[in-house]
Design goal:
With 192 residues, the chain is mostly helical. Helices cover 80% and strands 0% of the residues. The protein has helices at residues 2-8, 12-25, 30-42, 46-59, 64-76, 80-93, 98-110, 114-127, 132-145, 148-161, 166-178, 182-191. The mean pLDDT is 94.
Length: 192
Amino acid sequence: LLGMVALARDDLASARPLLAGAAASLPDDAAVQANWSLCLFRLDEADAALAASDRALALAPNHADGHYNRGLVLLRQNRLGDAAQAFARAAELLPQHVGAWTRLGETRHALGRYLEAEIALRRALDLTPDDAALHAQLSGVFYDAGVFEAALEHARRAVDLAPQVASGWAQLSAAQRRLGELDASLSSIDHA
């Protein structure tokens, strides 16, 4: 418990020995192994994090956070197809896992699978409809898919929800430019 508190506070120096000790003393506890995996991921020790995640999943194959943590490591390793599979499994096991849907959308977008990315990000938005970052991300998917009106709609929503966030303004400017709204695009980029 103290290790997770330290990890939540981003105190990795304290979290590491606490979670390492817990993982060593409780090798058959999937949740402990998953937490250790997350700690190692945050410490940028991808190979060790993947091994810990695999241990957690061997102990509890239906552990949603185990699949999610594994996906994070695979995403960092740029193994996008494997990461997408891990995030999809996490979302299947725990449909209210916003992070799994978000990362699934992100990886599918990076793979050029725009419709699948849209579906995943819309699931995340169903759970958190006022998340400006999700609207900006979905705007990027639509932009890359060439659906500029939808890109504009979600970029505007992102800016309405969080006008201080530059990424929303950048997405808005790009969509406006593609739709021929050049003056509006210049104004938006000034906000970014």
